[in-house]
Amino acid sequence: MSLAVHHSWERPDFGTLLRRHWPLLPLAGTVLALLVPVPAGDATASGKVGPADAASLLLVFVCAVQVLRGRVRPLTPLGVLVLGLPAVGLAVSTVTAGDPYAALPGFVRYLQVFVLVPAAIVLLVRDASEFRLAAGCFVVLGLMQGAVGVVQFATHTGASYQGEDIRAVGTFGPGDVMGMATVVAYGLVAATAAALAPGLPARLRRLSGAAALALTLPLVLSFSRGAWIATFAAAVLVMGLAGIRRALKVLLALAAVGVVLVGGLGVGSEMVAERLTSITQVSDAPDQSVTDRYTMWAAAESMWRERPAVGVGLKGFPANRDSHSGLALSSGSDTAGAGQAFIRQPLLSPHNMYLLVLSEQGLIGLVALAGGWAALLVAGLRRCVTGGAALRDCGLVATGLLVWQLTDFLYADIGGPSTVLTGVIIGLAAWWALPSGDEPGRFAPEGAAGR
Fold first, then answer.
1. Under a CB-based contact definition with an 8 Å cutoff, are residues 143 and 353 in contact?
2. What is the DSSP-derived secondary structure letter of residue 38?
């Protein structure tokens, strides 16, 4: 056992690493391609294929080649069911849509994010070292985007927020204010999990802890309430799975950082406090964004009641929004700053993934998608609880990221360049949760399984 652990942390030369892990290069590219700045207007453009999307398509292609060569990890019937069932729901929703041709782009997008990319990751990731490679890419992406966001706040070159150009949005621009918050939160959760995981070298745990603390600042400066809530939920879960003593250390460190940043340095203290308070003001004095969200939630529910089994069809929410919305809905969301002129963006989704699926795909689609997510969560948690210390870091990262995503889906849905990372997270969660047809090979020391 000690030999295996020692072997897993050896440092082979670059050529050996490339030969061993080359099929995972498109996976790293899918994550790191989001460092490329998003041109103004492209953040929410429908049908726009960005660098990350192109890398994900290459990932799927490489997976297909490896499948033909017989060099992928085998799946059990349960794995095939969980990964493939969403495709059935998507097909039903597309065929039964009022305009199947208009629903086709939605079918392709959902298939990419929720079926093809997750399946490619489950099949291609052969050992823990490759899983850690993907997790490390999330941390690197979060740190780089977070650094840009902090500079934007400090220099007043961010997105407009309460009349000032201070909102940290990274390279995603004001058209996708959740983009930076999302990738920073991904990196924070992954780094926290690595910092708390037993079995990793002490130096790596310390570096991960420092990265998690550094990512706290840009997450706060994103002023994203949904990202805050999701990160809190994921962090609490990760700390609980890691153990009370480890969790207390993290909580003390985070409290110290909060006191220094907000209390001592006064970094956005008034705005942060106001943003936190607004989370509870959902009925007494909600702001317009909350009112819009509730109005669109009601519209989504109304669409579902109209066609409960199959919904109004993929991409059908915008076309049916006005006929199901109340008068309280505003005409759009104001965006400006970060190098972009004032633009009023239309509200094209309910900002709740579960209601979006329910309204457009009905109960069939919701059961196929959310049912699979629930199965991955339960199986992943069970493996974390019943498994030993080996690969615990992978389990903490996988379940933490999945919980973040499922929590965030209560306040957001897919859209924008970072959407493809949703598929990556589901794939990593599935890799951890789903049993393999060759279980001993999966938990072999890194590099033991050949390509």
1. no
2. P
Q: In this structure, what token pair is assigned to residue 52?
A: 């990350």
Amino acid identity of 33?
A
Going by the DSSP 8-state scheme, the letter that residue 196 receives in this structure is H
Residue 253 lies in a domain: yes
DSSP 312: S
- Tokens 């729901």 belong to which residue? 89
* Residues paired with residue 344 on neighbouring β-strands, in sequence order: 334
Does residue 310 lie within any of the structural domains?
no
Task: Count the alpha carbons within 13 Å of 174 in the hemisphere toward its beta carbon.
Answer: 23
Residue 367, Cα to own-chain centre: how many angstroms? Answer: 20
The answer to whether 134 and 424 have CB atoms below 8 angstroms apart is yes
Instruction: Answer yes or no: are the C-beta atoms of 183 and 219 closer than 8 Å.
Output: no
- For residue 70, what are the contacts with CB-CB under 8 A and spacing of at least 6? none
Burial of 10 (0-12, 13-18, 19+ CB in 10 A): exposed
Q: Could you give the number of structural domains in the chain? A: 1
Pair 145, 197: CB distance under 8 Å: no
Q: Which domain holds residue 156?
A: 50-283+346-440
Per-residue tens of pLDDT for the chain, all 451 residues: 333 444 444 555 656 666 677 788 999 999 999 999 877 555 545 557 789 999 999 999 999 999 998 888 888 888 889 999 999 999 999 999 888 888 999 999 999 999 999 999 999 998 888 899 999 999 999 999 999 999 999 998 888 887 788 888 999 988 788 899 999 999 999 999 999 888 788 899 899 989 998 999 999 898 888 899 999 999 989 988 887 776 777 667 766 766 666 555 455 555 665 665 655 555 454 556 677 778 888 889 999 999 999 999 998 888 887 787 766 565 556 565 555 655 656 677 888 999 999 999 999 999 999 999 999 999 999 998 887 656 788 999 999 999 999 999 998 889 889 999 999 999 999 999 987 655 443 444 344 444 4
- Spell out the SS3 assignment of 264-305: HCCCCHHHHHHHHHHHHCCCCCCCHHHHHHHHHHHHHHHHHH
Order of strands, sheet of 159-161, starting from the edge strand that comes earlier in the sequence: 164-167, 159-161, 333-337, 340-345
- How far CA 11 is from CA of 14, 261, 446, in Å, comes to 9, 38, 11
Is 334 within a domain?
no
Residue 69's CB is within 10 A of a number of other CB atoms, namely 9
CB-CB contact of 403 with 237 (8 Å): yes
- CA gap 429, 196 in Å, rounded: 18
Domain for residue 323, yes or no? no
Q: Hey, how many other C-beta atoms are within 10 angstroms of the C-beta on 172?
A: 28
